[in-house]
Amino acid sequence: MIRKIELTNFRNHEFISLDFDNRKSYIYGNNGVGKTAILEAIYFASTTKSMRTSNEKDLIKKDENFAKIKIIFENNKRNEVIISKTGKRLSANGVEKRRISDYIGSFNVVMFTSEDILLIKGTPMDKRNFIDLEWMLLDKEYLSLLNKYRKILKQRNALLKNIKIGDDYTFLNILGKQLLEVGTKIIEKRTEVIELLNEELKKLPNKFDIGEIEIVYKPDQTVKGLKNWFETKQDRDIIYESTNAGPHKDDFIINIGGKDSKIYASQGEQRLIVIAVKIALLQLITKVSKQKPILLLDDILSELDERNQKLFLNNLPKDNQIIMTSVKEIKSNDKIQTIKIEGEMQLG
Ligand SMILES: Nc1ncnc2c1ncn2[C@@H]1O[C@H](COP(=O)(O)OP(=O)(O)OP(=O)(O)O)[C@@H](O)[C@H]1O
Ligand SMILES: [Mg+2]
Fold it and tell me: pLDDT: is 334 or 240 the higher one?
């Protein structure tokens, strides 16, 4: 459980320190006071990624040189992240971790945000990012496969810009073979993760009465197709000067009662579907990591009607730490701690 968080120059916060003394915390305040930023900082300290931006510099307070996130856990363990214009420094318990793979995994989070709707409405890249990010945190072999794939792909694409049809394809074929080897493992892993998520989805005690939810993997190529591509379709890649097939183009859709939820489900149903998928992910992370992830709920309840708010809360596990945000004030009680964030909205 996180006991304390301190942010310095993170987004709009020059300095803010929050103490969590209950497993359930409710952060409230007006629009723009920096509630999402607080959850973003916790998410970043866990995953080394932001759910809002791929440009880390966005996290540094305007006109400052660095941002700092410090998290102290119940057992006094500490994580610290410093983001500067040249990169980030990660440390755990005072020891700097130079490799991301050595840093991640010390605590897990699952974030629920309105952006999750991208799991249905987003581009294939949005969706791949979801699977990739969540799974690489649990499976370092997957992280290393993704890195390897990216590297070889970059090499192959560079070569494709410098080669003409009819040239000697020896080196191109070597890179194709390597991509096939790593790509095959990525396809297998993705198949497995999606299967595991589907198993968890089936087990959800309450599916918000919207029917059977199923994630359907749409790999760009089967392993056989990919092999064929790299062995016989080099010319096509040479014309386009880039690799046009492979796991870097994979997609998935989420079906509801056998129909594509993107086309079929209502706005509200789509929200419930992605919440269900996130809860399934949460169960899976709990199982695989044997830890209880911290749940970050960014203004989620306000999007649901009263009945679904109850269903959602009843579907959440009981003993995980939950930190939620809202613009609405509620009264503190012994079950939930409330924290008010003050400040001016800082547009412009
Ligand atoms: N790098 C930055 N430097 C300074 N301010 C920033 C930076 N990035 C974002 N902001 C500002 O920080 C503020 C906090 O944004 P945040 O999304 O955390 O607010 P919020 O409390 O979640 O609001 P809402 O209730 O509308 O969701 C916004 O006013 C935004 O313009
Ligand atoms: Mg917000």
Answer: 240
Reading across the β-sheet that carries 78-84, which strands appear in turn?
13-19, 2-10, 66-73, 78-84, 87-92, 95-97
Q: Which tops the pLDDT comparison, 345 or 205?
A: 205
* Ligand 2: centre distance to CA 255 (Å): 29
Give 252's DSSP letter. Answer: E
In the chain, what is the straight-line distance between the N-terminal and C-terminal CA atoms, in Å? 36
Q: What per-residue string of b and e applies to 300-317 under the rule 16 or more CB within 10 Å gives b?
A: bbebbeeebeebbeebee
* Two structure tokens written together for 339: 């924290």
Whether 323 contacts 39, CB under 8 Å: yes
Spell out a b/e string for 266-294, using b for 16 or more CB atoms within 10 Å of the CB, else e.
eeebbbbbbbbbbbbbbbbbbeeeeebbb
User: What confidence score (pLDDT) does residue 331 get?
Assistant: 82
Sorted by where each starts, the structural domains of the chain and their CATH numbers stand as: 1-108+291-348 (3.40.50.300), 117-290 (1.20.1050.90)
How far apart CA 98 and CA 230 sit, in angstroms, is 35
Mutate to test the pocket of ligand 1, among 5, 9, 10, 11 (most ligand atoms within 8 A of CB): 11
CA angle 228, 232, 237 (to 5 degrees): 100
Q: In what order do the strands lie in the sheet with 259-260?
A: 213-218, 251-256, 259-260
What is the arithmetic mean of pLDDT over 160-183? 96
Does residue 117 register a pLDDT over 70? yes
Predicted local confidence at residue 206, as pLDDT: 65
Average pLDDT, stretch 161-168? Answer: 95
Ligand 1, closest atom to CA 12? Answer: 5
- What's the pTM value of the predicted model, to 2 decimals? 0.88
Ligand nearest to the CA of 64: 1
